[in-house]
Amino acid sequence: MSVSGFAPSAGMPHLDIDPFSIEFFEDPHPAHEVLREAGPVVRLDKWNVYGVARYAEVHAVLNDPLTFCSSRGVGLSDFAKEKAWRPQSIILEADPPEHARTRAVLSRVLSPTVMKQLRGSFVAAAESRVEELLSKGSFDAIADLAEAYPLSVFPDALGLKQEGRENLLPYAGLVFNSFGPPNKLRQDAIERSAPHQAYVAEQCQRENLAPGGFGACIHAQADAGEITAAEAPLLVRSLLSAGLDTTVNGIGAAVYCLARFPEQWARLRHDPTLARNAFEEAVRFESPVQTFFRTTTKDVELGGVRIGEGEKILMFLAAANRDPRRWDRPNEYDVTRKTSGHVGYGSGIHMCVGQLVARLEGEAVLSALARRVGTIEITGPATRRFNNTLRGLESLPVSIKAA
Amino acid sequence: MPTITFIHPDNRSERIDASVGDSVMQVATGKGVDEIVAECGGNAMCATCHVYVDEGWIARLAPMSEDEDELLNGVAAERLGTSRLSCQIKITPELDGLVVRLPVRQI
After folding, report:
1. What domains lie within chain B, and their CATH numbers?
2. Touching A: B residues 1-30, CB under 8 Å
3. Is residue A96 classed as helix, strand or coil in its secondary structure?
4. pLDDT digits (tens, 9 = 90+) for A234-260
5. What is the DSSP string of A260-307?
6. Contact (CB<8Å) A351/B37
7. If you count residue pairs, one on A and one on B, with CB atoms under 8 Å apart, how many are there?
8. Mutual orientation of helices A214-223 and A98-109 as an angle, nearest 10°?
């Protein structure tokens, strides 16, 4: 039922799929197809929200931030009706025009120019990680590579202290679980969150951030008058929330793809300059960030369906990234695919501000693997890590041999 | 329908029909012009759709935003006075005949 009394469209498909259940997470692709094929807009009765799973509608919602707002939360929880579990983000959970100011600060801190300066050290770290793994032979591609590599470069680039970094992944897991409904994943994460939240709040303060890092650069923007001194820690928090677990799952997805599809691994080995695109294609194919919500700010028609004001809309980014209306052979991982336009990082004004860091990390790892490793073999069961928003593995036992 | 000419780094030129309202980046990627990568899909965030606009055309384009100017400092090939991000050039009927050169690298 519409809150505004604006009559919802008759004939819109109602589905009883729970996109935040363990069964769904175990194999989301058949359910994504059902969601996509049911119609351009569906009603998900389990959580009383609208859903969009086709590329056109997902793209349209992402690119109309005044109608489909973020300031009421990008999870199921509507900040107009319930208090956010943490102080609201001033970038992720903000709308135009306020959003432009904070976004400009992070865009500058994570710009293409800054990436040029980081490239050398990120590449060197990836090469030494791969050398170390070659000497081990057998290892867990998640803990020893997908987690270990970002942990070896990102916290330093941010300027974090050594102590307490073990809080980073649990905090990120918490943030991404919190966008889901009040299920066990979300409740458990929030119940256990106090120490992680305390750590993050502390590290966002200026005195705890090393000079020259992303964190110090954000605080310097407050000196320049671009943001207030009170806003700087909240923008540092955004990097701590979204800068690590996302790339962990992106790199994990890429290694999992290359280990499963030997002909694609062969193409990458033959031409290691495909590394960056091979990573990008893994982001499309696996979509480490599966979903986000928006909230309608007025009565609106979308895909022929009338939606009232104040309604939550769940965007299935992963389903859009495999929509056959947009992609040829959508269920194939192809390292040479033209990936431009995929929504794995979102689209529009809220598109991932750290996308250049993610690509640099992904390219560095895949390039080092392609140049040094001959074979990657999966040697044990790949187990999944469940999260309300993120898709990725808990463990991927592999063995590699030098080229 | 306006046509845009893309000149590849090897001086090969390619004329492509463009729809009014599309960006030069969309025209290029729609026809498989490989030198335009456009990682961010046209959101002015990645600086991988860099082009050099022909001298005779540069002054006829709408001026660039501050964001685009900052991003151009990070392009992989040399930035010149004629450098633009092709995702920020919208096709209008007046741009019929526009000529852009493609850089040797975007990353």
Report:
1. 3-101 (3.10.20.30)
2. 29
3. coil
4. 999 999 999 999 999 999 999 999 999
5. H-HHHHHHHHH-GGGHHHHHHHHHHHH-SB-EEEEEESS-EEETTEEE
6. no
7. 53
8. 130
Residue labelled with tokens 């690119």 = A63
Nearest-angstrom CA–CA distance, A383 and A398: 13
- Chain segment A46-82, per-residue pLDDT in tens: 999 999 999 999 999 999 999 999 999 999 999 999 9
List the structure tokens of B16.
């492509």
Nearest by CB to A347, which of B43, B71, B74?
B43
Q: Nearest CB to A108: which of B41, B70, B75? A: B70
CA distances from A72 to A142, A305, A344 (A): 34, 22, 22
C-alpha span between B29 and B37 (Å, rounded): 8
Separation between Cα atoms, residue A70 and residue A313, nearest integer Å: 11
pTM: 0.96
Say if CB A23 and CB A2 are below 8 A apart.
no
In the predicted structure, residue A401 carries a pLDDT above the cut 90: yes
Distance between CA atoms of A64 and A58, rounded to whole angstroms?
Answer: 10
In chain B, where do the E strands start and end? 3-7, 13-17, 50-53, 83-85, 99-101
A199 within 8 A of A275, measured Cβ to Cβ: no
**Domains of chain A in sequence order:** 14-402 (1.10.630.10)
Instruction: With H, G, I as helix, E, B as strand and everything else as coil, classify residue A339.
Output: coil
pLDDT in tens, A294-331: 999 999 999 999 999 999 999 999 999 999 999 999 99
* C-alpha atoms less than 13 angstroms from C-alpha of A378 in its C-beta half-sphere: 16
Residues in chain B with CB shorter than 8 Å from the CB of A113 are: 70, 73-74
For residues A285 and A325, give the distance between their C-alpha atoms in angstroms, rounded to a whole number.
15
- HSE-up of A134 (CA within 13 Å, CB side)? 17
Which residue in A117, A283, A340 has the most chain B C-beta atoms within 10 A of its own C-beta, making it the best mutation to test that interface?
A340
- Average pLDDT for chain B: 96
For residue A4, what pLDDT is reported?
44
